Amino acid sequence: MSKPYTPPYSLTAAIVSLVAQIGEAVGRLSAHDAAATSLRLRRINRIRTIQGSLAIEGNTLSEEQITAILEGKRVIAPPREIQEARNAIKAYDLFTQWQPAAEKDLLAAHSILMKGLLDAPGHYRSGGVGVMAGADVIHMAPPAKRVPQLMRDLLHWLKTTGEHPLIASSVFHYEFEFIHPFEDGNGRMGRLWQTLILSQWNPLLAHIPVETLIHEHQQEYYAALNRSNQQGDSAVFIEFMLQMILDAAPRAQSKAQTGAQSASILHALVPAPLSANELITHLNLRSKTGAFKRAIKELLENGLIAYTRPDKPSSRLQKYRLTGKGRAHLNTKGGRS
C-alpha cells in the first residue's frame, strides 16, 4: 500500500509567529462580531473580495460596477468581465454549501465560476498548460493525465491533515496553483477555496477581503509562487499568504467598528436631529473617533442621514437628521448597519 501524499512544505519561525498573530487579530475582530457579521458589512466585503480577485486576473470592473451588477442594474463594460462578476457573485452566494475536501464541490464551484467563459467548466483540463509572465513561461503544470490523481491526493491530504487551517489552506492554495487543474480560472479558484477552508475554521474569515490586499501586492503574490516552485517547498508562499491575512484583519475590524458606530448614530437620531458634539455625548465618546468620522461620511453618502443645513455644511448650527431612507433602514434591518 502506497504512502498517502504529503505536500512538501516547511514550518518556519515566521510561519509559526504569523499563525499566532492572526489568532490574536481574529480574537480582536470577534469582539466586534455583531457588527463584523452584519448583512451590510458582509455585502461590502464580498464585493471587495470579488473585485480584488477578478482584478488580479485582469478584470477592470470597479466595486461600484460590481455592486450595480449585484443589484441587477445595467453596467456598460466588456461582456466577459460582466459575466465573470455575475459568476463570482453566484459562487459566493453558494459558498457555505461546499465542503473543502469534496471533489464534487470543487468541480461544481469551478462550473459556476467559469460558466459562459469556457467550453467545459467544471472539468479538469485535457491539455498542457503553462503559467506565463509576458512572453516567458514561468511554470509548466503537470501533464493533464496526472491531474485527476494529483487532485484526489491533495484533497485527501486536506481532509486528513492535522495541520492548522491557516497553514493547511495556504499549502492547498499553493499546491492547487502548482497543479493548475483547469484550463482557466485556477487563480480565482485557488483563492476562493483557501477562503472556504479558513471560513470553516472561523466564519469571520469569510468576511475579510484578503483578495484586495493580494491585488495590491500582485507581483509579490506571483513572486512567492515562483520562489516556492524553485525551492520545491511552499514555505515562502505560506508566509506571504499569512501576512496578507494578518494585514487584512485590521481593515475588517475598522469596517466592523464603523458599522457598529453607524447603527448607534441612526438610533440616536430617531427622536430628533443632533449636532456632531451632541452625538459624541450621546454615544459616550471622548472625541470624534476615526470610526465616528467614517460612519458619518458613509451615512451621508448613502442617504441615511442628511444635514439640517445642507447649504452650509460647516455651520456651527449644523445638525444631522434621519432621512426617510434611514428610518426605513432601521425598520427593515433592526438597526444593524
Distance between the termini: 56 Å
- Rounded mean pLDDT score: 86
Annotation field: number of helices: 15
CATH superfamily of the largest domain: Fido-like domain
Any idea what the shape is?
elongated
Number of strands: 4
Can you tell me the residue ranges where pLDDT is under 50 for at least 5 consecutive residues?
none
**Strand order, biggest sheet?**
1-2
β-strand percent reads: under 5%
- Integer tally of domains: 2
Order of helices and strands: HHHHHHEEHHHHHHHHEEH
Task: Indicate the CATH topology of the largest domain.
Answer: Fic-like fold
Q: Give the CATH architecture of the largest domain.
A: Orthogonal Bundle
What is the CA-based Rg, rounded?
23 Å
Class computed from helices, strands and strand pairing: mainly alpha
The residue fraction in helices comes out at: 55-70%
Describe the main β-sheet briefly.
Answer: 2 strands, antiparallel
Write a structural description.
This protein has 337 residues and is mostly helical. The protein has two domains: 13-254, Fic-like fold (Orthogonal Bundle), CATH 1.10.3290.10; 269-333, no CATH class. The protein is built from 15 helices and four strands. The protein has a two-stranded antiparallel sheet with strand order 1-2. Strand 1 and strand 2 (136-140) form a beta hairpin. The chain is elongated and about 75 Å long. The mean pLDDT is 86.
Short description:
By secondary structure, the chain is mainly alpha-helical. It is built from 15 helices and four strands.
Keywords:
Fic-like fold, mainly alpha, 15 helices, 60% helix, 337 residues, two-stranded antiparallel ribbon, 2 domains
